[in-house]
Write a structure and sequence with these properties.
alpha/beta; 48% helix; 480 residues; 7 strands; two-stranded antiparallel sheet; Phosphatidylinositol Transfer Protein Sec14p; 3 domains
Length: 480
């Protein structure tokens, strides 16, 4: 059953929504130094110039920070005065009285210590296998089509991913196999974080399995397995983001959201830990907007009512509206096919979580930096192609119904397909395999698997062979 495609999504934009998306692209490309403040393309010889704004002048004492996997030491960025963040946002006015997570401050900090080119590369890093429009529309919808607020939110998310969580240059590129090895570290703090992360992988407190009636992947959270203080905060945050980012990779158009099921069976106050809940809320509200389709709180006992009144106060009303309380299997069945409901919740799916250990040699492609850099170079070229098509598309808004405008839209979608293809070719060079790769759930389609893999068997260092990915249909058998 396909996910509904309401207005505000690719393929179903009103005229006003399409214009807001065009405005958002221009604002983003301006901050990234692609478009000058007068709207001209900075790649053109007669690109416009702007007057710097003292309020956003970069601090010369601060080094320009790199963001994302694209920023290799071998690259050099030639930044002219007209490309500076100050010039890029000289005409941008930001007013957000309800800045819940300090995004405006993060936005200006990012502009001060990050070059426009690195902001651009960070964006294309963040796109991954998404259609670029789909990513921007998430932020637009989250900020009710206020372009300035959406831009602030998006750039703030860049900063959070790269400088707070180090999501792509640490968490995803190293994955769980790295954390298993890091548990032998001589640094006590690093060892503790690695050991706790490994425990979370084995425990199955949270895991992804199955889909709901709209085809959205389901993440189960078995609250009874959580104990306050059992794992350090850094490990919990790392594991939370790791699962969210992995869930995102499972999404295939037109599916854009995931479902969360909090299994409250046998819940007690010993399981209630507010810090991870707050962190999860911030992730979805500030950094993964419009990514939650629904949240089910199943079998919550009466003692949870007081706790819920506190949590509800932290939630954005839009997110709160997606939370539903269920008591019975029949309640779940209204939203999830009975065949996809776990047996422990009264359904027919006999899947039982069991962590699948890393396979020796499964991340060998990460050693091939030459091939990685070749694919990254191709990605940069495709990204520029999409940017050029986007500028043409934005320029065509005065005659949106002409044949030329239709051709531009078609071109953009074709280039977006090239980006998606390139991502799955690049994926094994920049992301360590997870348990969901070993189960065959990632990459999420036959086409993506063919793009990211070579032979069905991979050579181990000792000459033996490692098994190929297990088809999704075999997950339950393998994990039982």
């Amino acid at each position: 059953m396909p996910e509904e495609n309401p207005t505000g999504h690719i393929g179903n934009l009103t005229k006003e929504e399409e214009e807001k998306l065009q405005d958002f692209w221009i604002a983003l490309l301006r901050v990234c130094g692609v478009v000058a403040s007068d709207g001209s393309d900075t790649d053109q010889p007669n690109g416009g110039s702007v007057t710097p704004s003292d309020a956003s002048t970069p601090d010369p004492k601060k080094p320009k920070k790199r963001l994302g996997i694209f920023s290799r030491k071998s690259e050099s960025v030639n930044e002219s005065p007209s490309d500076s963040p100050a010039n890029s946002i000289s005409n941008l006015k930001i007013c957000d009285a309800e800045d819940k997570y300090g995004e405006t401050k993060e936005f200006f900090e990012a502009l001060k210590d990050t070059s426009p080119e690195d902001l651009r590369l960070a964006f294309w890093d963040m796109v991954k296998h998404d259609h670029p429009d789909a990513l921007l529309l998430r932020f637009l919808r989250a900020r009710k089509y206020d372009v300035n607020r959406a831009l602030v939110m998006l750039v703030s998310a860049f900063r959070w991913r790269s400088q707070t969580m180090h999501l792509d240059d640490d968490i995803m590129v190293k994955g769980d196999s790295y954390m298993e090895a890091e548990s032998k570290s001589e640094d006590p703090a690093e060892k503790q974080e690695a050991e706790d992360f490994a425990k979370l992988l084995h425990l199955g407190e949270s895991f992804i399995h199955g889909t709901d009636k709209l085809g959205r992947p389901i993440c189960y959270i078995r609250v009874r397995l959580h104990r306050i203080g059992a794992h350090n905060e850094a490990s919990l945050q790392r594991y939370t983001v790791y699962l969210i980012e992995t869930s995102r990779l499972l999404l295939q158009s037109p599916i854009e959201t995931a479902a969360l099921v909090f299994d409250m069976t046998d819940f007690s106050l010993a399981n209630m830990d507010y810090a991870p809940v707050k962190f999860m809320i911030q992730c979805f509200e500030a950094n993964y907007p419009e990514s939650l389709g629904m949240v089910l709180v199943h079998k919550a006992p009466w003692i949870f009512s007081g706790i819920w009144s506190v949590i509800r106060g932290w939630l954005d009303p839009v997110v709160a509206a997606k939370i539903h309380f269920t008591k019975t299997t029949e309640d779940l069945e209204a939203l999830i096919p009975r065949s996809n409901i776990l047996k422990e919740l009264g359904g027919d799916d006999d899947y039982q979580y069991k962590y699948i250990e890393p396979v020796a040699g499964e991340n060998e492609k990460q050693k091939d930096t030459g091939r990685r850099d070749e694919l990254l170079k191709t990605r940069r070229e495709i990204a520029k192609e999409f940017q050029n098509a986007t500028l043409s598309w934005a320029s065509s808004r005065s005659n949106p119904s002409t044949d030329g405008a239709a051709d531009i839209r078609k071109t953009r979608n074709e280039v977006a397909d090239k980006l998606r293809t390139n991502y799955w070719q690049l994926d094994p060079y920049i992301r360590a395999k997870s348990m969901y790769d070993r189960l065959g759930a990632l990459p999420p389609s036959k086409e993506a698997r063919e793009l990211s893999s070579t032979p069905q068997m991979s050579e181990k260092a000792n000459g033996e062979t490692a098994p190929a990915a297990v088809p999704v249909a075999e997950q339950a058998k393998l994990s039982a």
